[in-house]
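Check this:
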Amino acid sequence: MPGTLSKLLRKTKDACGVFNEATCKANCKMSATRAKMAMNKESATREAIQREVAKLIQENKLEKARVKAEQYMQSEKTEVALDVLETHLELLHTRTGYVASSRHMPEDLRVCVATIMHCEGKIPIDELKIVCDQLRMKWGSSFQTKILDPEGHDAHPKIVDALSIYPPSAVTIESCLSTIAQKHGIEYLPALPEPNELTIEELQAGAPPEPSTAPAGSIPEPFLEADFHTNQNGGSGYPGRGGCP
C-alpha cells in the first residue's frame, strides 16, 4: 500500500509539472543504459561497413566505396556522441540529489546539463526527453535557451561536433579509404583533387597545399595556431579520432 501511494504521488507531481527526483534519476539511468547499448550496435555496424568498403575497393567500385566510407565516419561520430552522452547521464544520475536541492542550476553542472539537452531530439532515446523535461520543470523552460545559446556552445565540444550535419571533406573520405585499404592489405592510391580546387577546410584537413608563388628566400606568413590544432586532430573536429580506424 505505501508503495502504491508513493507511485501515485510521483505521477501526480509529474502531471502537475513539478520536478521529481526519483523520476529524473530513474530515467537518467535508463537513458545511459540505452546509450551504451546503442554504442555496441554502432560498433558492430561500423565493422560490417568497413569490410564492405574493403571489398568495394578491391572490386574497384570506388564511388560506392566513398559513399560507404562516409557512412562509416557518420557511424563513428554517432558512437562518439553516445559515449559522451552516457558519461554525462551517469554524472547527472549521481548528482540528482544535488539538482533537487539547488534552486538554480549549479555552474559545475552547466556542461553536463547543456550536453544532455543538446542531444534531445538528435539521439533517439525516449527517456532522454523525460530527463530534459524534468530539468525544465526544475529550473524553468527559459534556462535551456540560456545554456544552449549560441548553438550549444556550453555543451561538450565533442558532442556538438559529433552531432553536426556537415558531411566530411573529399580529402577526409579519401584518407578513410586509404586507411581501410591498408588495414585489409589492399593497394589503394587516394584520388585527391587538385590543390587549387580545395577548400580551406580541406587544406586544413591535410591536403597538399598549392605550390607557392612567393620569391625564393621570402618569409612565409605566420603559421596559424588553429591550423596546427586541426591538423593534430586529423581534421575530425574532436581530439583523438581521425575519422577512421
